[in-house]
Write a structure and sequence with these properties.
Elements lengths: L1 H20 L10 E7 L8 E6 L6 E4 L4 E6 L3 E2 L10 E7 L5 E6 L8 E8 L5 E7 L3 E7 L5 E16 L2 E16 L6
């Protein structure tokens, strides 16, 4: 009789565990995702996987300017969260809401030489920053509707500044940012 009780208890716990792992897709909040790879620097060659839970305004299309603006903050690391709340990534590009190849530009003034920044500020005061240059290459693989994702890749050569594990340095590097960003409401 004891064996049946333990078997029943085990089976009941397994059912409860399985039910708690099943997610209702209608209640999930979409999350923007970024994977950043630096060719040089303290995390050279590693994929830095980031998410933004402030997804409703991470990406907005501006109808009058025919421009898309990315502004994601705060960023969190997927595997651990040693990033400070000030960590962010931002850039923009001119063009309609379609797939294709684009060039990065600064949202407020397309004539500025930088189109945005990557700023990874760590809770232990380490940091990695890199300006995104004007005309950085952007490939958009899919441009979803509001509430869906815009998926693509940003590639450029920039200068990385960092203070990481007591090493302070500035050097040129190739940067790749793969992204799947939740599209927020359009703006004027």
């Amino acid at each position: 009789m004891k064996l049946n009780f333990w078997a029943f208890l085990y089976l009941s716990l397994m059912i409860i565990t399985i039910q708690s792992c099943v997610l209702d897709n209608n209640t999930l909040t979409p999350t923007s995702q970024f994977t950043i790879t630096f060719e040089k620097g303290p995390l050279a060659g590693q994929n830095i996987e980031l998410i933004s839970n402030n997804s409703s305004y991470d990406l907005q299309f501006y109808t009058q300017k025919l421009s898309t603006k990315i502004s994601a903050q705060p960023l969190e690391e997927k595997s651990q969260n040693s990033l400070a709340q000030s960590s962010s990534i931002n850039w923009a590009w001119l063009g309609d809401e379609v797939e294709g190849n684009f060039k990065a530009s600064f949202f407020s003034d397309p004539n500025v030489n930088n189109s945005g920044d990557i700023e990874l500020a760590y809770k232990n005061n380490d940091y990695i920053t890199c300006s995104i240059p004007k005309n950085a290459s952007i490939t958009i693989n899919s441009y979803g509707n509001i509430g869906e994702t815009v998926d693509g890749e940003l590639n450029f050569i920039g200068v990385i500044d960092y203070n990481y594990n007591m090493v302070n340095k500035r050097e040129p590097t190739m940067v790749t940012v793969k992204f799947s960003i939740v599209r927020g409401p359009d703006s004027n």
